[in-house]
Amino acid sequence: MEKLRDELPGNLLEILQEAASVLDCRSRERLAAGIETLLGENHDLAVRAARAELERDALLAAVGRQGIVYDAGGGVVAAGPGEEDRIARALLGRLDVSLGYPGGEPVPPGELPGHRALRGERLASCRYTIHDPGGEDLHAVVSASPIIMDGAVSGATVTWQDVTGEEQACRRLAEANTLLEGLFENLGDIVGVQRPDRTILRYNRAGYEMLGMTPEEVAGRKCYDLLGRTSPCTVCATELAVASRKREVVEKFVPELGRYLECRSSPILDEKGEVAFIVEQLYDITDRRRAEDELRESEATARALLNAPSEMIVLLDRDGRLLDTNEMTTRRFARSREDLIGRNILQFFAPDAAAVYAARLRDVVASGRPARFEDAWDGRLYDVVLYPAADEQGNVIRVAAVARDVTGKKRGEDALRRRTHDLNERVKELSILYEISRIIERRSEPSLNEVFREVVRVLPSGWEYPEDTVARITVHGHRFATERFAETPWRQVSPVVVRGETVGMVEVCYLHERPERDEGPFLAEERALLDIVAGRLGSMIERFQAWDSLEKSESQFREIMQQSFDMIYTCYNEGGIAYISPAVNRILGYTPDEIIGRRCRDFVVPGSLPAWEEGRTKIARGEPVEGLEIEFHRKDGSVACLELNESPIVRDRSVIGVHVVGRDVTERKQNEQLRQHAFDQIERNIEQFAILGDHIRQPLQVILGMTELIDEEAATGKIREQVDRINGYVRDLDRGWIESRQVREFLRKHELA
Fold it and tell me: What SS3 string covers 375-419?
């Protein structure tokens, strides 16, 4: 088209000059008129061609790409947006920047996209990395195509798009996925993913270690098949979760593993509300169950010990109200245990005796020391002991009262002292268990170390000779001991076990030799007490570790949400927006504090309200919403288009709110509109090329027809020769029209239109 614009006027003038000498006046006038018409239309064609070139550049800008045009010799005809662009310099082979493949290998000069296109190759959406020593690396998607004319390569075009932001986003997403995978694999608990029919997809590392299998051996098998069974468990958490579509928890003993497991199955629903996957969490609660069984046995033993003696035993508060009692007391008072508990024990005595008992109770509470005395009641003699139980501050909060019928002293003072002593030891064991349980169960405890210090401090009081008893707790190499602790031959030890692994031990020693009992100088009940304390410490360590893991997980997920490029928010039906990520400042111009508490609907552009309400209707039915495009008002008054993906928040089978992830697609929507407008203009230009060719042929046919009226054969031949030359130029114009159609198809093929 450039050749036609530059050469056609001169050629037509030359034709006119050569033909003027052989034509008559009328023929010259008609020929001149035809050529002037042709020249005018040729000028209009040049203007249209220049306009098409400008529209081509506008199209490239509208679709967000840049380009380089080479001639047949490899020379740069045009480069946009300019050779100062780093990507353009790399594609042109400049030495100050380097072009490399995605793997990092440099691109040789002869393999540059433009050079490959000049050799006839076509490149579609190839990725390259541009390294600039003075700045950050860039990433571009490059396409190149040869320009073919008359069957030969007459040049090449190279277009590119800067995808650095997309590449960085992909890398951040990959890093986030790696982090989540690492969290999944390194959870201490066993976590597995299975289909609703119990087909295992995968476990985390703890699951494979528990089964002693590899991922390849587990994948695709049923969960019960891994245990060597042919049918599911009688009570299956997965089956319950599939039916209820909510998390189900089942505790059971697995004989194949010899362990008690707590199975938690949580369903993952698809967009239709059907169960797509089941996330199964398995907790080894063997030690906890055993400790609970031991505690129940200990409590049963204590209850049996309380009921076995013939003494009356009651547990009182500071004011004398009954908190617990044994069967002997119920028989002595001829009342049930339920009728006695809650009453004040002083009301069962005469006023004078009640005053004496009240004074003794006050003395025990005030001094913190036990009191022992003998008293007569209803003609029988009783040996009564009031034993205080103090809290960690040393304040007496309970008093145990033991009334022994000593009327038959003939049984012997030795037997009487021995039984009283044994009973006091059981009371001491109950008290120490209560005290240790209170220390372990405190939620406000600052650290495990403080718990160990308090437990080891109160531990000696549970033994028969507390003044001669020392204790030590060792956990993970850290030692917590009472004053004067020393290892002696008179020693009891119980291991501290956490999730099946021994992490420490609890030791109790007598500093001096004592009489032989059930286990050296120690009682059998003292062995049971030591084992219970060690078991409770192991359970406490497991609970603290679980709290720490939960806090770390919550912190990591909160940080991921805070750094998200998309706008993430949670909105409840009552109370409005409860949380919104910092990305709202970049997208809408508001700070999170300006949004919290407001309704999201207040920011929706009126034209988007119908689509917005339709999304709310789906959420109210418990259905997720994907790809919802809504326009929002920015703080500066402009409009932003966001693509929303929404998930309902369901509690007690009712939708109470929604979780939303919003992505800003404003620039993408604008680019789509500009791209469509530019392509429509190219379509119109192509049509005008075809019409213009027809307009040029019509005057030529007139000129050719006029030659038939001229008698001079020489002049007629000359005119026909020049008309053929003009027809040749018109055919060049037709080829330009065909090439324009090829450009259009190229743009369509590469999604530029």
Answer: EEECCEEEEEEEEEEECCCCCEEEEEEEEEECCCHHHCHHHHHHH
Q: What is the pLDDT of residues 156-175, one digit of tens each?
A: 888 888 888 887 788 787 77
Q: How far apart are CA 581 and CA 577, in angstroms?
A: 11
Q: Alpha-carbon distance 367 to 736, whole Å?
A: 113
Query: Which residue type is seen at 602?
Result: D
Rounded-to-integer distance, Cα 51 and Cα 259, Å: 82
DSSP-assigned letter for residue 523: -
Backbone φ, ψ for residue 91 (5° rounding): -70, -25
pTM of the model: 0.30
Burial class from Cβ neighbours inside 10 Å (0-12, 13-18, 19+) for residue 596 reads: middle
| CB atoms closer than 10 angstroms to residue 395 | 11
Among 729, 750, 731, 742, which residue's Cα sits nearest to residue 682?
742
- Residue 231 predicted with pLDDT over 50: yes
What is the pLDDT confidence band of residue 553, given thresholds at 50, 70 and 90? Answer: low
Q: Is the pLDDT of residue 25 over 80?
A: no
Distance of CA 566 to the CA centre of its chain: 14
Which amino acid, one-letter code, is at 291? A
User: Which of these ranges, 51-65, 356-370, 628-642, has the smallest mean pLDDT?
Assistant: 51-65
Angstrom distances, CA of residue 162 to CA of 107, 128, 143, 664: 18, 10, 12, 19
* Dihedral over alpha carbons 194, 199, 201, 205 (to 10 degrees): 80
Please tell me the distance from the alpha carbon of residue 701 to that of residue 693, in angstroms, as a whole number: 13
Question: Is omega for the bond preceding 495 within 30 degrees of 0, making it cis?
Answer: no
Pairing of the two strands 66-71 and 76-80: antiparallel
Dihedral sign, CA of 613, 614, 618, 619?
A: negative
Q: Quick one: which H or E segment has residue 329?
A: helix 327-333
The span from the CA of 702 to the CA of 707, in Å, is 9
- H helices within 473-608, ranges in order? 524-562, 583-587, 592-595
CA-wise closest residue to 331 among 405, 430, 406: 405
Please tell me the predicted confidence (pLDDT) of residue 517: 85
331: enclosing H helix or E strand = helix 327-333
The rounded distance, in Å, linking the Cα atoms of 374 and 404 is 9
Position 28 scores a pLDDT of: 57
pLDDT at 11: 55
What lies within 8 Å, CB to CB, of 175 at 6+ separation is: none
Strands (E), 214-368: 248-254, 259-269, 275-284, 312-316, 322-325
Query: What angle is formed at CA 306 by the lines to CA 300 and CA 307, rounded to 5 degrees?
Result: 90
Q: Given this model, what pLDDT does residue 50 score?
A: 58
Q: What is the average per-residue pLDDT within 117-127?
A: 87
Residue 351 to residues 182, 214, 652, Cα–Cα distance (Å): 73, 78, 58
Tokens 């249209």 belong to residue: 48
Q: Measure the CA–CA gap between 436 and 540, rounded to whole angstroms.
A: 11
What are the beta bridge partners of residue 641? 631
Q: Rounded to an integer, what is the distance from CA 237 to the centroid of its chain? A: 25
